[in-house]
Amino acid sequence: MMFKKRFSDPGTAPATLLPLGPGEASKPVFRIIEYCEKEIIESRFENFAELPQFSDDGKVRWIDMCGLGDVEALKLLGERFELHPLALEDVLHLGQRPKFESYDTHLFIVAQMLYRDKEGNFTGEQLSMFLQRNLLITIQEDLEEDVFDPVRKRLTSGRGLIRKSGSDYLAYALLDAIVDHCFPVLEKFGEAFEEMETQVLDNPGSNCVRELHNHRRNLMQLRRFVWPERDVISALLHDESGLISAQTKVFLRDCYDHSVQIMDLVESYRDVAAGLLELYLSSVSLRTNEIMRVLTVISSIFIPLTFIAGVYGMNFSQESTPSPANPLNMPELHWAWGYPACLLLMASITIGQLVLFKRRKWL
Amino acid sequence: MMFKKRFSDPGTAPATLLPLGPGEASKPVFRIIEYCEKEIIESRFENFAELPQFSDDGKVRWIDMCGLGDVEALKLLGERFELHPLALEDVLHLGQRPKFESYDTHLFIVAQMLYRDKEGNFTGEQLSMFLQRNLLITIQEDLEEDVFDPVRKRLTSGRGLIRKSGSDYLAYALLDAIVDHCFPVLEKFGEAFEEMETQVLDNPGSNCVRELHNHRRNLMQLRRFVWPERDVISALLHDESGLISAQTKVFLRDCYDHSVQIMDLVESYRDVAAGLLELYLSSVSLRTNEIMRVLTVISSIFIPLTFIAGVYGMNFSQESTPSPANPLNMPELHWAWGYPACLLLMASITIGQLVLFKRRKWL
Amino acid sequence: MMFKKRFSDPGTAPATLLPLGPGEASKPVFRIIEYCEKEIIESRFENFAELPQFSDDGKVRWIDMCGLGDVEALKLLGERFELHPLALEDVLHLGQRPKFESYDTHLFIVAQMLYRDKEGNFTGEQLSMFLQRNLLITIQEDLEEDVFDPVRKRLTSGRGLIRKSGSDYLAYALLDAIVDHCFPVLEKFGEAFEEMETQVLDNPGSNCVRELHNHRRNLMQLRRFVWPERDVISALLHDESGLISAQTKVFLRDCYDHSVQIMDLVESYRDVAAGLLELYLSSVSLRTNEIMRVLTVISSIFIPLTFIAGVYGMNFSQESTPSPANPLNMPELHWAWGYPACLLLMASITIGQLVLFKRRKWL
Amino acid sequence: MMFKKRFSDPGTAPATLLPLGPGEASKPVFRIIEYCEKEIIESRFENFAELPQFSDDGKVRWIDMCGLGDVEALKLLGERFELHPLALEDVLHLGQRPKFESYDTHLFIVAQMLYRDKEGNFTGEQLSMFLQRNLLITIQEDLEEDVFDPVRKRLTSGRGLIRKSGSDYLAYALLDAIVDHCFPVLEKFGEAFEEMETQVLDNPGSNCVRELHNHRRNLMQLRRFVWPERDVISALLHDESGLISAQTKVFLRDCYDHSVQIMDLVESYRDVAAGLLELYLSSVSLRTNEIMRVLTVISSIFIPLTFIAGVYGMNFSQESTPSPANPLNMPELHWAWGYPACLLLMASITIGQLVLFKRRKWL
Amino acid sequence: MMFKKRFSDPGTAPATLLPLGPGEASKPVFRIIEYCEKEIIESRFENFAELPQFSDDGKVRWIDMCGLGDVEALKLLGERFELHPLALEDVLHLGQRPKFESYDTHLFIVAQMLYRDKEGNFTGEQLSMFLQRNLLITIQEDLEEDVFDPVRKRLTSGRGLIRKSGSDYLAYALLDAIVDHCFPVLEKFGEAFEEMETQVLDNPGSNCVRELHNHRRNLMQLRRFVWPERDVISALLHDESGLISAQTKVFLRDCYDHSVQIMDLVESYRDVAAGLLELYLSSVSLRTNEIMRVLTVISSIFIPLTFIAGVYGMNFSQESTPSPANPLNMPELHWAWGYPACLLLMASITIGQLVLFKRRKWL
User: Distance (Å, rounded) from C-alpha C317 to C-alpha E36?
Assistant: First the structure.
């Protein structure tokens, strides 16, 4: 569906956790990474009940819940970590614009990871993040794919700042991965438009329109998810809850800058797409014009000639059985120079028209 | 009528309550729900005079007046609850943009409930709300239909916060129902546009334009009602009259977010509609181009051939009764290889043109 | 003239009162209404000199000068009531955008009353207002027509607040009458566009473009006068000269709201007009396409058939006087099944083409 | 050149006074007007060295330097009156947007006087103003023409405030003359567009496009110079250097209002021009449609008829020398009612098509 | 590639210095200019290790690193001068929008120098600047070309303020050179558009579209780099780090003004380009219209005539072997005045049509 956006039935009580339909959601898996500068432990649970109690040992914990198929687990999660019910409801409203909300006990961020499906169209996978001190809870639509593998590698390898910093830096790293994931996607657009440009000028066919329309729709989709992302990062930059450290804000500034660069590219590509459509339309209109010209020239020359031939193909007869001859009936046909004169007339009409068309620049 | 908007005659005194024309308005019915956490009482009156006096017992009261046919009752209502005359006048100006006005004794909100009529077009039913401490007065155009049944069910069942909260929460719940009511409506647009996209590309007919135009007008209507709704909720969020509690503001923030998501969808669908029109126009223009090409090719090939056939259909005669023969008159007709040579000439012209058209990519 | 706007010669001293050309302005008439809650006196003078001295008796006075033909009277008026010379100059610059200027001794407001002339086009009549305590001076272009009759009736009847309030309320009442006067005008647009919509889809002719263009120009004109009106009222709302009472500001807020509703309608109608033009263009383009299709189909079918008929109309002869027969010359003509075969060939070409066109959805 | 804009070579030191090329600039002439309320003295010098020393006698002096051909004189002028070198450099960068810059010792204003050249196109003559207490230095491109004659007359006659006020009022008077000079220019556009409207609807030819394009370019040029003018006056209004008196600011407010009115007209005319282009395009498209219709109707009717005539012009023969007759070959030709039946067939086809076209509203 | 923009793989740690691919980057060369008011020393190194230690002698140093092929050298540079790692990462992200970032120890500026390649398209060479007290580090993509030669000359010659000022003035001088470099580039656009205008009106061919599209893309590119440049300079103007002196800010204000003038020109040229496309489209549409007209006129006249000729070319026979004569079969052919009457009919049809077309203004 175009712009899929899940919503509760109008009028249902706010903060109602609406289970997704069967087939829409998969059973959740909990991936937990606990790390401090010295060590890192990864674990994986299939039931929320199995989740261990966390001691307040200064370790940072990342709970990554993949799959939205178990509303009960979500409720328990919310209760245990004091997540706001309205935020939990938003977790289930898939297809949302990215948003940032500051609650008393945590910050809540919704972002969209962009993937291309097999037909090259974009779909967004919604990522919900709950940020608390030393704890980051992320909730993804399913287990299948995400853009965080490089972040996990950095966590495991222990290089860089990531293991030395708190959960706010982890949240930044995930957002940064999501934002930077748009660059290769946009590069694809660049290539596609380059190619299309040549095609539009040389051979503007109906597949051009179709393809261009598709690209524009994808850019529109992309834009819907990228524009608010910038606002989310900006809101994080100016957050005063104290959960985001000054050091992380320097990096978020960098991430903000990237999101601006992406928006800039998206807008540029939208301009390019609009330009290509105009180019296409003028190519087609020029081509129609050229075809018309040829048709006009050929028709204009031959239609009068055919008429003349038609005239001398008429069967008006000079012979008349009961009465005297009809000498007025087509005497040209019996004139010795009739045929050459006729051909000469035709030739002169042709030459006259060619000269005229040449002057009007139709040839 | 397009954009129905009722107005008083220019120059009438402000706060004049103008009765609606006969047939335009139905006799009002008063539905009253009184509730506190423990109990809930529903009652229904057909005359304003029957309305009981309310004691100040901490119960929340929702007076739902359905029908605008009795201007006197409206006046009495205004006097009893100290509603501002200008606000009462606005109640009768149907078809207004949603608005929020803060008066000394109450807050005044105008919203539009959107329905689809049988032909799929939108009409708005105006809802006026007066919010006082423990009292919410709503005024609808008629009794027939509204979007509040789920809210009434939540009131009766007593689940959720609604019975534990004041009249501000009730006002929020109604606004939320109105806003969320737009989501399924917008989903319909999504489906319609999906379908239309295929049709526009494959078979762009005149019904496409008609339908697309209709959708665009409906989106325009929708937008007129949704854009100011956001401002209304925003004004409620920043209201300083003390009538809106902090707790309700958290929920209003959620509702505000929904109204932003809806506006975002409306704008996206407007973009899609504009894109579809462009797609349609380029489809038609391409199709004209293609048809022209076929016509040109066929005409360009056969018009010269027909001319040649015409020439040899002329009746110039070599016989000449009184004088010697006219050997210059169409000797080809009497040449033994005349006909085959003529056919050969025709074939070679055809082949020459086909090659030319192939090169110009017209075939 | 399009956008009539009177201006002084560039470089003339500011505050020069430039007399209007002969025929442009009519001799002024002064209509004076003096009222307090208890009584109301109307009088009418043709000469400024006849105007009585006003005692400071708490009565509100409305001096309505109709006609700009006497620059001297205007000067005297300005001197007597201490009106600013730059404001007086603006009174004579007809066709201005509405504006608000706060001078030391008075507030100065320019508004435009909109009328339709016989051809349905809009013209604005400029109204200049000088607001002082207990005094309102209005200056109109001529005596003929204004939109203030309902206000005068309210004054005479003494109902409502108008007789109990000061000159600021009177100014509000006049502005309100001007603003509300736009609603019926806009309703006309709605009706016209409704009608045009059907016409554009069913029978897009050249009068459509003409009419649509006219409507768009009128909307442009309307917008030029309505947009700044809102700013004028907003400036009045925030005026701190003390001339506007708090009570009147509540009413001005209502009037401001009306001006916003009008602007909203104007913008909506501009969108509708733009949509209609697009609709018209696509209707025409679709119609061209359809006509082309019919032409192409008929031509494509008959041009080849005509060619074949032309071939067998050629006069290549098998008889040859001096030499043996030319059996190669059109033997088909002498074949017993020649004609039926020829007709069969024609029929099969026709059927082949029909099948092809059917497949391409050209039929 | 389109948008002429002079600039220094990139990288040259700032504040470099670049002499204009030969033929580009004329030798400067200094026109000096010294005035106080009682007297006025005009003088004229051709060499900067001849300029007398000015005593601080309370007189206002206006030094009007016409011609930019002598960079040395400009340098000397700058040194003597302490003009900022960056401002002096801007004096030579012709074709600039109007700007305002506040330096320590003076205010610096760049404005553009608009003229129409012989072909009706706009060119701007740059005017640089340096405002000091009791001194106004203006620098024009050449001596030929300016828009200040009415100001000079007001100075000489001594009427109005100009002789009683300081150099700030003089600067205002010049700016006002420049701004008001746009009104008659814009009126010309109004007339041209009125005329063009009729032409576009009745007879849309290629000269329309050419002319319309020209007008649009001129409006673009005008806009480039008028938009920033408003900002300049606004900056003067809010200047806090103390060089602009409160009294002058009242007049500048009036001038600001004029510049807003002009911008409003420019934007309106741009809308009109855009509307005219759309009108033109739809006129042409409608006309193409109409021509197509006629062609289609004529072709569709006669092409089938010609085909039938062609069939009965074929020479299939029933006589066959060596063999028996070929009775299948065109027996219609020998049928007694052949010709009338054929004509009847043709007539019925024609009528059938006419009915069909009538129904499709093509006739 | 369209909009080349280098980026790290999504998810890589921030501040990772990613080496450019082989062939993409050249080995760096360090050009060092040390100067004070009295002396200036230029030196050149190919290895970072060779760079001497700088004493804090009040001299200003400009380290110009040309070439990005050695990531190690960049790292060492960053360590030695305490450049922020995120800034260093940005140095390698080529194709960025200009940006300004204020770090603790230095200001960081990214700008784009615009060049035209052989085909006339723009490419930007990224310039990164690190500004510290008495030190300016600039990093260019390669050694080949830059726009700073006039600045180097001013440094060597010692004229102007440049040798007397600090590193902030040098940074200004470089930015100014970059900004002013756009003026001649834009002048080229002006010339190209002037030329194209004539061509579009006289002979709108397909190369027009191609060229226009190219220009528009180039303007889009230019705009992407020029718009943020203004923001960069504005941020420098309002920088509060103390690294920019008040004197330099006066010059930056001038540079800011230039960047505004350039943006103004870019926007104007974009308008011109859009206008040219519209002009082109209406030229083509008018031309199609004209061609259609000629075709229609010729076809409409000759098609009926040819039909008449065809009718009298039919072979309906009055002779009938076995039966009596068929006098109904084409008696006109045997009528003595048949042929002249037929020609007369044809002539009258022609004249009738010509009159009709003349009236419809098709001739």
Answer: 107
